[in-house]
Amino acid sequence: MSHLGAAALAALIFCAFAAAGEDAGGAISSFEEPSIEMPFLLLQIQADLQGSLEDLDMAVAKASGDLSASGLEGDGAREVLRGLLAENSDLVEAVTFSEEGKILVAECEGCEGGEGEDISGQEHIAQILRTKNPTFSGQFLLVEGYHGTAIAYPVISPEGKFIGGISAILKPEELMDALVAPKLRFDTSTRSNITDYSFWSMHLDGLIAYDRDESQIGKLLFEDPLYQPFSSLLDLGERIVAERAGHGYYTFQVTEEDERVVTKESYWTTVGLHGREWRIIVTRIVD
Questions:
Q1: In sequence order, what E strands does 99-146 have?
Q2: Phi and psi of 128, rounded to 5°?
Q3: What are the average pLDDT values for consecutive 10-residue runs of the chain, which has 287 residues?
Q4: Could you give all domains of the chain from N- to C-terminal order, each with its CATH number?
Q5: CA gap 240, 267 in Å, rounded
Q6: Distances from the Cα of 249 to the Cαs of 37, 96, 278, in angstroms?
Q7: Which of 81, 61, 83 has its CA nearest to residue 71?
Q8: Which of 25, 154, 200, 277 could form a disulfide with 211 if both were Cys (CB 3.0 to 4.6 A apart)?
Q9: Helix, strand, coil in percent for the chain, rounding step 5
């Protein structure tokens, strides 16, 4: 999309949101004027993040094709996985797995591979084995101790037979740090910034996948005790799950450590792959 097209789309979205009149946190007129800059900022982040996800997806798809020729085991497979990681710094681990769901070859940066391990019980691997279609996983805890998300593809032999697949892991937190921090101009080491805006991301099950306040990453919005006193946040969270884009207000603490309760304006939209969606949200304190 051209810069002009993105600007026009942002203006249309803003007008549609403003015309709606009512939000989960109350009437728009009860707060200061909605921010015109926020939808533009959100669309820039959306374009960058969606583009990055699609680039990674295409890289894994290409590796799947290369593995069709090389096979899923041996030096040829290992070379394909190493090349995938070397050319895509946002991927931290890649494995091939058999049609039974056992890891055949594992490559990762700074960790031990789990070759021979049965991963058929992992949701995205089970889906590949069942449907033979590519998938984008939910966030899960890896044995190395960090949360990751997988892009997985089936591998089809030159004879047209399903022989297993490839799974590549990315860390959503690191990917979003790299894309969001420059836009909001915040320091990823201190999580502090010099703009009025903040950013968070949520999966459709309520998992907080990213937040400038990193203590909230990994919490479940609808279950964690931190959020239960804030009904407007929970109500808006329900809207964020149900609606692919929108605008609203909620009250919450400045951060988990800073317990001052403030009103926040938010705009959200969606990125995703293979039918799985992430909601991405830009916020600012208005009261």
A1: 103-108, 135-136, 140-141
A2: -60, -45
A3: 46 48 44 70 93 98 97 96 95 95 86 79 95 94 80 97 97 89 65 69 95 87 95 96 94 79 93 96 89
A4: 3-51+173-285 (3.30.450.20), 62-171 (3.30.450.20)
A5: 9
A6: 16, 45, 20
A7: 81
A8: 200
A9: 35, 30, 30
